[in-house]
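Follow-up to my post from last week.
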Amino acid sequence: MLHLWLSGIGGLLQARELMFLTLGMAMGLFFGAIPGLGGATALALLTPLTYGLDPFTALALAGGVMGAVPMGGSITAILLNAPGSAPSAATCLDGHPLAQQGKAGLALGAAASANAIGGIIGTISVLAILPIAKELVLLFGPPELFLLAVLGLIVVATASRGKMLRGLIAGTFGLMISFIGYNDVTGALRFTAGIAYLWDGVHLVPALIGLFAVAEMINLSVKGGAITKDAKAVAITSMTSGLLETFRHWRTVVRGSLVGTIVGAIPGVGGTVASFLSYSLTVQASKNPESFGKGNIEGVIAPEAAINAKDCSCLIPTLAFGIPGGVEMAVFMGLLVLHGLQPGPLMLIDHQVEIYGLIWALTGSCVLASFLGLFLARPLSKLTLIDSEILVPTVMSVALVGSYAVDRNIGNVIVTAIFGILGYLMIRFDYPRLTMVVALVLGAAAERNFHQTSMMSDGNLSIYLHRNVCLVLLIGIVALLVAPLFRGLKRAPAAGLAL
Amino acid sequence: MKLFGTPLLDYLPALGLALFTAAFLATSYTYSAQARAFPAPVAWVTLALIALDLVSRTQTSAGEAIRRHLNPGAHTPEASHALDKHLAAALWLAVFAVALALIGVLCAVPLYMFASLRFQGRRAWFTSLWISAVATGALWLLFAVLLRLELYPGYFFGGA
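User reply:
Got it. Predicted complex:
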C-alpha cells in the first residue's frame, strides 16, 4: 500500500504535473469565487482541453481545480454573501455576519485553515476507507438513503435557532419546489405549468444564487450603506487570529471533517448536505447556539472543514462504483472516460497509481489554495467597504449573468430573480433559508429512493423497520422531533417563575 | 385590525404559503396515484405545519404553547423600512431580469448599471457612465473572452 502512496506522490512531484496542478488550482479559485460557476462548470470547460494530456497530468489538473473551488467559494460567501458554489452557502450564515462586523479577515483566515485541515483529514480518512469502501457504500440502499434525506432535513430544521416549525415549513416548501419537472421514476411531467424550461426542474445553482446573492443585495439595497460600516475594523482584522481560531476549535474541525468524509462517500448526497449538516451539528453541540447566524466563527469552520473533506471522500463512490457523488463528480467522470479510465471496481485495481496521484493532487490543492486565499484575503476584504449603490448593481449583474452562464439558458436568469425575491421575503419574514436549500438538493433523490423502496417492498412501509441502518435513522428522526417538546417543557416552569 | 390579538398583516406570510400549498396539492391530484405518491403527502404535511404556524402567531394559550415549544426564536418583522423601498428593490431586479431576456446582456447590463447608479444611487452622470462602462467591459472580458461563453443576445436580437 505504501509504495502506491509514494508512487502517487512521486508522479505528482514532476515539474509538468506541478505546473498543471498549480494552473488547476488558480482556475479553481477563480471559478469558485464567481457565483454560479463553481467546480462543475470549471471541469466541464476544462475537460475538452485536457484531450492532449496524459491521464496522470489531466488528473493533476482536475485535482487542482476540485481542491481549490471551495476556498474560492468561501471568499465570496464571506465577503458578499454570494456563495461561489452551492456547498459554500453554509459559510454565508456566519461568515457574512462576521464580514458585516468588520471581521472579514478573521473569517477568511479561519475558512482557509479549516479548508486545509479538512482536506488533510479527509485524505487520511479516504486512505483508510478506500480498502473497505465497497462494504460501507453497500450498507446504504434506497430505504436508508430516503430516511437519510428526511433525517438531514430535520437535523437542519432543528438547528434553525429556535425556529424549528418555520424551518420545517421552509424544508417542505423546498421539497415541493424540487418536485417540479420530469420525474425519472414515474415518467410523469409535473407542476411545470406548460413551461418547457421547467421540464428539468428548477435548476439548483440559479436558485441558490437568487436565494443568497440576490436576496442579500435586495436587503442591502433596502438598508443602504456598505456591507461593513467601519473601515478601520476591516483594516485591523488579523487573519492570524482566524488561523488560530481553527486550532482553538479543533473539535469542530474534526467533527466537520468526519461529517464531510461520511456524507461524501454516500452517492448523490453531495457537498451542500455535508456543509449544512456539519453546521447544524455544530450548532446543536454548542453551548451557545443562539450566537450562530450572527457571526460565530465555529459557523465558518464547521462547513469549510466538511466541504474539503467531502471532496476527497466523494471520490470513493465515483471511482469504485461509477456512481458520482455529486454534479462536480459527474462531470469529472466524463474527464476520466475521455482518458480511458472507466470508473468502477476495476479502476481500483488497474489504476491505483493514478487514483493516489489524484488524491494527493486534491489534497495539495486544498492546502495551497488556502494559502493563496490568505494572500488574497486582505485586498478582497476591502470589497465590503464599497457603497451599496455601486455594489448592488455590480453584484446583481455578475449574479444574473453568472446564472445564465451555468448552462447558457436565459430561463436561469428568471429563476434567479424569482428566488432572489423569495429569499428576501424569507429573510424579512424570518423563515430559515437553510432547510429550503437542503430540501432543494435532496428532494429529487429522496423521491427516487422513496419510489424504489416502494417497489422493493410492494408498498409495505414496514421495510423501514426490518433494516438495521433504517432503524437507527428512524430513532434519530423521532428523537430530533420530540426533543424540542422536552426542551419546551423544561423552559415552561422557568418562564412561569419569571412571570 | 386584529385577530386573536395579532394584527391581520402578520398572518399574511403563512396565508400566502397556505395558498401556494393548496394550489400545489390540488394540482398534484390531477396526476396519477404513482406520480403524486410523494408530493401529495408532503403538501399535506406542509399544510399541517402552516396551520401550526398560523396558530403560533395568535396571542392565545395554544399560540403561546406552540411558540414556546417549536418557534421560541422566531420574530415578527419590524416595519423599519417603508413598503415602497421593498417594492422598488424588487422592481429594479424584475426589470433587469426582463431586460436581460429581451435585449440581452451587452445592452441590459450597462443600461441597468447606469440607471441604478444615476437614479437610485444619485451619482453624477459621468460617474454613472464610466462605472457602468467598466463593469460591462469586465463582464464581457470574463465571460465572453476568458470563458468563451456566448453572451445572450436578447429575444429581440435573435436569442432563443
